[in-house]
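Objective 1b. Sequence-to-structure analysis of Glycosyl transferase family 4.
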Amino acid sequence: MSRLAAALLGGGLTLAASVVLREATPGGAARWQRSNYRGNTVSLLGGVATAQGAVGAALGAGGRAGAAGALAAAVGGALGAVDDLDPGAPASKGLRGHLGALARGEVTTGAIKLLGIGASAVVAAAIGTRMGERAATDPGETGTAVRAAAGRGLDVLTSGALVAGTANLINLFDLRPGRGLKAAGALAAPLALTGGPGAPLATGALAVIVASWSGDLAERTMMGDTGANALGALVGTAFALHPSRRVRGIGLGAVVAATLLSERVSFSKVIEETPVLRRVDGWGRTA
């Protein structure tokens, strides 16, 4: 039932928010307009609707998982909006750029987003993780109380890193119409199919993706940091709730590797030069 509720609330709220925001745009439509990679004018309100749908999907999932997902998605969306609406923010500064700015004493909106999403992700992981059950079922967690507490703490930190890393990764992919949605869907689909504590969140994320699809692919709207960070945080929370520590570890390693690779390699260039990826990337676009 929680899967159905997450899907209905996530998809329904995304569609409803899209309509309401078009009719009553906060600050006026021009505030949310941006030029995309082809120079077309698109609206960031699609990302706001996606973020609201992501929070709604988490609330529909209910329980500890829902509370964790709602927190991660809400903070990701809110801080993403701060970055989107900052007129002085660079289009892309990257992890290295934001950390370098912090080292020089310069606090960018991107750095605020980085630290804020990271902190909320750890809290979300602590809320959603049934640490006692993991400690009792995983081999090697039968030592002293101190070792057990350290293991549970490490579990929360690594799960939080997975949530924050996934939120950032979806944002890194969201450079072309539909690309961020497809990346999020590729992660969410197996999590929804395999079941487990995070399955309702993953199912809700898929519904949000479907509801956001037409506007994003038709280049009427874009997710921006607001939608990409919120949706990525929701999917990341579903991933972090997977009962297998090995799966979570592999996921975190892949997310970290992809993030570090993005500092040196253009994902857009790799996709454009790889025929299979280019076809998948272009699927569903109107132009």
